[in-house]
Amino acid sequence: MELLRPRTIAEATAALRDGAVALAGGTEVVPLLRDGPLLAARLVPLAGVVPRGVDGRRATPEAEQSHEVGAAAATAAPRPVLRVGAGTTLAELEVDPEIPAALREACRLAASPQLRSMGTLGGNLLQATRCWYWRLHSGCWLQGGDRCHAREGEHREHAFFGNGRCASAHPSDPAAALLALGATLRTDRRELPLSELYRLPRDDDRSTTTLAADELLLELEVPSPDASVYLKAMDRKRFAFALVGVAAARSGGEVRIALAGAAPIPWLLAAPDALDEATPLPGTSYKVEVARTLVDRALEAVAP
Amino acid sequence: MLESLELTVNGDRHALDAPVGRSLAEVLRDDLGLTGTKIACYEGHCGACTVLLDGVPALSCITLVHAVGGRGVTTIEGLREHPLVDAFVREDALQCGFCTPGQIVSASALLAANPRPTREEIGHAMAGNLCRCGAYRNIEAAIASVGGGR
Amino acid sequence: MARLIKTEKEVEGHYTETWVVVEEDVLEQWPAGPRAVVGQPAPRIDGHERARGEARYTADLALPGMLHTAVLRSPYARARVRRIDASRALTAPGVRAVLLPEGADLPPQHAPEAIASEPGAIGAALAERARVAPLTSEPGYEGHAVAAVAAETQAQAQAALRLLAVDWEPLEPLLDADDAVRRKSLVSEPRVNERGDLERGLAEADVVVEAVYRTQNVLHNSLETHQAICHWHGDGELDVYISTQFVWGVRDAVAERFGLERDKVRVVCEYMGGGFGSKNGPGEYTLIAAELARRTGRPVRCALDRRDESRAAGNRNATIQRLVAGARADGTLTALGGEFVNAVGWDGLSASTAGPMQLLYACDNVRTVEYGARLNTPPNAAFRAPGFVEGTFGLECLIDELAAKLDLDPLEVRRRNYATTDPVNERDYSAKGLERCYQLAERHWARRDDVRARSDGAWKRGVGLASQIWFGAGGPPSYAWLRLNAEGHATVITAMQDIGTGTRTAVAQIAAEELGFPLARVSVALGDSARGPFASISAGSSTTPSMGPAVRAAAADVKRQLLEIAAQRYAVDISTLTVEDGRIVAGGSRSWPVEEITGLLGDGQLLGKGARGPNPTGMRVLTFGVQVAEVAVDVGTGEVVVERVAAIHDVGRIVNPLGARSQVEGGIVQAIGYALSEARLLDPASGTVLTKTLDAYKLPTIADVPEIVTEFVDEPDPHLTNLGSKGLGEPPIIPTAAAIANAIRDATGADVRSLPVTREEMLRALREARERERDRLGAPAA
Prior knowledge:
Radius of gyration of chain B: 15 Å
Number of strands of chain B: 5
Shape of chain A: globular
Largest interface: B-C, 52 and 53 residues
Distance between the termini of chain B: 52 Å
Number of domains of chain A: 2
Largest sheet of chain A: 5 strands, antiparallel
Order of helices and strands of chain B: EEHEEEHHHH
CATH topology of the largest domain in chain B: Ubiquitin-like (UB roll)
Shape of chain B: elongated
CATH superfamily of the largest domain in chain B: Beta-grasp domain
Strand order of the largest sheet of chain A: 4-5-8-6-7
Order of helices and strands of chain A: EHEHEEHEHHHHHHHEEEEEEEH
Strand content of chain A: 15-25%
Number of helices of chain A: 11
Mean pLDDT of chain B: 96
CATH topology of the largest domain in chain A: Uridine Diphospho-n-acetylenolpyruvylglucosamine Reductase, domain 3
CATH class of the largest domain in chain A: Alpha Beta
Radius of gyration of chain A: 19 Å
Number of strands of chain A: 12
Helix content of chain B: 25-40%
Oligomer: heterotrimer
Strand content of chain B: 15-25%
Number of domains of chain B: 2
Number of helices of chain B: 5
CATH architecture of the largest domain in chain B: Roll
CATH class of the largest domain in chain B: Alpha Beta
């Protein structure tokens, strides 16, 4: 294996184009390389290439125009937006008072202190499922095989939405928070709403993201809501992936809800009663019940 | 492919060659003989291999040694005089002791950032260090006693 | 004088009668209560070495020229190996040897002789667990060792393993325990234990409750994985460095396997990173390492990685318990019955899951049947109070369900059925402090109204309790030597092991107490079968009760010599002499530092020896306890939080209150994992283990641990040795899960009968309770 030393985004993406694997915090990539699901002859460290840190409240152009109106008109003013480098660690976000509560809490309740100190936001958004069949590389449908082992097998940690083909659950807590917050992201070539980063895997393309193989996630723009919250149900108090994570953010009269641990991708819930349309497996019906409670509590928490 | 690197561990500089992909934990244990850092899961799920990189707790078993860069590595061998060591012994915060070096490394980072942590804060900051013997209450007491929180 | 006697030896509830040579145990027990050293809290004497990372575990050892091993393990729960082509592996870089199983159709030029399959047993009580077939061509569980490669580096060994071309014939696995019982796939004959007449007892009952309880498979997950380094040298002598709970058992099993005189095998384990019952024997890894070392003439390490640990290192088996209890209106039990199915797996002990039902309560009509289902799942290994942890969950939940139906206080029901002699064989107890435990528990039990009152809309709170009964007498043979040097420093020498329980510190305290020395003047040299006498297994809560009396006897032997010399030196009557805090005291008036006498020795040393005396004949030596758990249940999400556990145990004299409290807390933490979050899951079709990693297998973290209050009866057992101490390793893990489940019922009215109490189990039980309540209210008034 070879370790490259890119100095620029262009050098990094060029290496990715040649089949190298990106290495940020390493918390996901290193075990996967060792274990087999991921193969790489070359690694591209992203430290120093991808932005890290949070830009102070940066007003949008519209917000700049309305600046003179003053704080009293805050409800009418366009919202300030934070720019978060994809190389920012979860530990940095967890303690940053500028960060909206839902994202801060999602980071705080993710993984372990060591993993949060190492792992970056970009890496977290792009992590693979924790489905044990996938992790133990059983050659499942998501890995190019012909069936989802979890659907007929052991699936208590799995999906209750979008699970027709693959029952895996997306594990990212920050992704749910960012979806609820309406974040957008910037790559080396485009800007897109975070919701468009993800898509359910299909028979002809089993990737769970729309990211090109050589595309680098650089920065997120996170609007500041009036209120936001992240609630997480897990098997122990800390250091466990979400059985169900519920993020809710209210901006004015609009509330957005997103779920972690619910579908093969982070899942935006169109409305609270959209839980009625869940498609749980026998072993995940309890998750719908947990989600109902957490959605109710989240809505209560962000209510004006 | 072997690639040479420099590594500063507990203030000592080492020049060595290692294949790309080798973990920091293996280099510490097998190449430098610093066996206080333990490997218990080798995939980032238990915290036994915790070291500090420029003061920040990291899992040496999933840190590629070539990615350490210029960051200074602190292992348990560099913390042998830390008051936490006495506190762990005094409070009986260890049983088999296999997780203990990692616990002390994590706790040292907690106390550096937060000299008087509450019980809740200790629980949050130490949740990445599993102890199968279940010495947790005493670990909490040991950290609190050094932090003056009791 | 040495005496040849027949004595009962008990390990984890299994009694065997054996001849042993014992020394007269002439020492009187010390009076109850804390003494100068024994009974005082003592930080562990090896604490700094462990905390500073200086302690050398087996995992930290590297011998010059050492090779590394990779083991090919079956990916199938059941399969046949038709053929293995090892030619590519044998010529791979760094490879020095390849071991293949018998029976596979091997290319003759690459057919190293296979390891034969039966290494023999450690001892009668542990025979099932010691039986290991190192390599097999007919694997019976996922992870069963099939082949092994030794190479210069671990990476080379692993790379070579991938070059073994194996022709597998996967076979249909047997995975369902009830199915196995129907098909008579059993590891041993069903065990039936009966007294009285169960049917008559049920007929006499005013109230009968029936319930099915299920417990899950859990993994020991010691942080130091199973591993050994083997090294042949000299004239067929074998050194084994191993992470083990039984230095001597490993010696015997390895010697037998390789046809060696026992003392040709030296077993070393100075520091040990956890075992919890899973490291009682050599395991296939040791035999593989020894065989590879024999062939290559090099030291060989064989270590399980975490994933191997999760499939090939043993586990606590799952159980299905179909139970019934009958009682009169006043709570007096008239009948207890149970059919227990232990899902043992491929191999291992079918532990006594019925033990608590047989032993805990005075009840005239008891019938239990236990089946040990043999399955194509990883083997069972003893796990901290095997059988009793599972069986106490069933029994103590059943008693609470009975109490609820009778509308009686659960503590009162337990007292009403208190056994004053052993209900199985009517023997007297050597000592029984369970009633004292109940008394001490009362103030914790009395908190339940306050606890319940702290419930709110989402969080319901409640309190539950459960009793504990278990063994823990220890027994002979166990020996210790003690050496006192000119500087007045004593060293206890015995080839026992400290598996993290703090026995090194406990025996140092016992020696210091007997010698009249401060603790700092006593060291302990242990963990080396070539450099100390035979010592107990560290299993079955037996190390302290087995070793402590032997160590005390050795110290008394040295003290006698010390005082004999002092009497001559100071010309005083020896009967007036004692040693206190490192000084020789004459009649309470004059005193001299011990070094004044020992200093006369120069290079001489005072040497003492001690042996463990016999257990009392015809008595039941047992440990007892009760735990009171307080829980909060989020009825909206099914989250269960244990907020407080009070643990009261009677294990005789407490040697080290600090270490003892740690043992209790550790047991409770493991029990909380057992009750709430830990489960080894299998794929239901293939039988392969899904929870091989510590993200999927959820051990408790520090954030999951409640307030724990520990109390001890701390009365020496007057009939048990010169010490009066019983073992404490296992008792604290036994009652916790039932106490938690009973607290959940108290909080919510829901019956949780299946472990772990995950969200889904909690929500299911809540739903069932709501439906029951609705049926009750909706029932016609007729």
